[in-house]
Amino acid sequence: MKSISKYYLIIAFTLIGFVACTSPWDDHVAIKGNNGKTLMEIISENPQTSTFATILQKTGYDNLLSGDKILTVFAPTNDVLASVDLNDLETLKTLVKNHIAYSSYTIIEGHFSTDKVEMINTKKMSISGQQINGVSVNSENGNFNISTANGILHLMNGIIPFQKNIYEYLLTQSGNLQAEFIKKQDRLIMDMTKSVQIGVDLNGKPLYDTVWINQNKFLEAYPLNDESKNYTYALIPNNVVERIETKYAKYFTRTVTSDQDSIVRLELIKDCILEPVEINADGKYISVDGVKMDINAANILETYSASNGLIYKLSDADVKIYENKVKTIFIEAENYDSIFADVSAAWSVRNKSSLHGGKDVLMNSRTEFISKYSSTDSIVYTNIYFYTDPAQTYTGGLGKVNNCFIQFKPVINSVTYKIYWSAYDDFSWHYDGSKTREPVKFSMKMLLSFPEKPIVYRNASALFVNNFSPYTVFASTRFTAGVQEEKELQRCNISTVDVDSPYFLLSRNYLYTDENNYFNFYNGTDALGDRETLICPTYGKSTIIVSNTTEYKTTYCGPILLDYIKLVPQVDPNE
């Protein structure tokens, strides 16, 4: 069967040669047949490649070149291998794998038909005309397009340089803080799919013939070692690393100093992984995570063309904090972490093209917020309504318990924030005068817990636990139907009425004169901020809850209607 497959392969290459010879190149580009001999046999018999044949035998790759896989070999001639140490086995293996490719690559009309060739070491080499990574094929007749039973042979005028990928290059940078950090993320873990159970121990627990594999969480997230990727890496010296990290530190505060140090270093390394770009001018160069790095072209000390991108060794660089490293956070309501109501059908995600993310989230509930005309006269009185049904015939899902909520889990920085949110009550009967004498108004409240603090949650008694403050929540002035608006949240005192305070009902000003003093907002200053700001003490994942039950409890708790939340860090624009 093997001889038959070789026979058909020879025919295939002969046909290719026949087609090529119809061009003006004629015999000069025709693929040369070799009577069914393998690549290894041809290389061994050619006096120009005897040294390469020896290297193949030393490294064991003679077996690959004697097999039935289709390969292309770019064989350096003896003279260019004269300085290679034939006793350095690892170097020889690296050289061999850098000169063999799967599949066939031929020269037709003076050039290869592709601009890339992937070697068996997964390195992708650039092709230009008859050059592989800048090294030319020996164009003398008989030295290229040599067909064999298992592939194509080209003789080369030089050794194709081995290109390290970005990670391999970083590993050569002894003492560099960034490279050392990435390497330290290596972990040996047991490969359960390859480890074989060989028995049990005295306690009956399984014993394995264990196969260990290396795992690096950083490289899984940012694969600088992946030959199929393409990045630009800004390699900065240790003194610049330390300077920028000092600037980052206060925005990534953790209770454990070693955790904070690791997070800060990780953040800076991520910012050095840029989108693929050639740096040839001063500018702001964007990272794969969207952070801009300020680079002056005069600070480029060295450029290395890696197999998966470019590395610029710099003497200096910088990263601005304001709306760059620490940005405004938009939390779209539809990207919630979880929702709660006693009836799940009370919740709906609405498609609204006019909204920030094209959607909002609504929880339908009964409410006492709506005033309507009397059926007999124009006297306004409070009437308990289903929020979305003016006829009170709604039969769908309704939230009828205290403190229904929608929850989010944003990662926030250790910084002072101002908080905003947006909602749009676009039910026409709420504001067009057909059913109500004045536009409908509604309110919501926000509770939250900081990173590394006990998580805020609703317990079985419908009470919130672990809010950032036992006496205040965040709220805004009430939303008005028919008005699409963004409102600033402020800390608001909770009700002091004994039956209301456990539910975090908002403190009402019953002598209010306008919407700005409808609620009793907090007017003090403490470690958490003031009326308009929130000081977040630590960096990490927080919990934010938006809830109803602001003015009324029991079954008339009101709706939740939310477009987005916006957290604006208070950072010096010059930083």
Automatic annotation (TrEMBL):
Any one of the GO CC terms: extracellular space
This protein's UniProt keywords: Membrane, Transmembrane, Transmembrane helix
Gene3D superfamilies, per the entry: FAS1 domain
Membrane-spanning intervals of the chain: 7-25
Domain spans labelled FAS1: 36-160
SUPFAM superfamilies in the record: FAS1 domain (SSF82153)
Pfam families for this protein: Fasciclin (PF02469)
UniProt-recorded name of the protein: FAS1 domain-containing protein
Native source organism of the sequence: uncultured Paludibacter sp
Upper lineage: Bacteria, Pseudomonadati, Bacteroidota, Bacteroidia, Bacteroidales
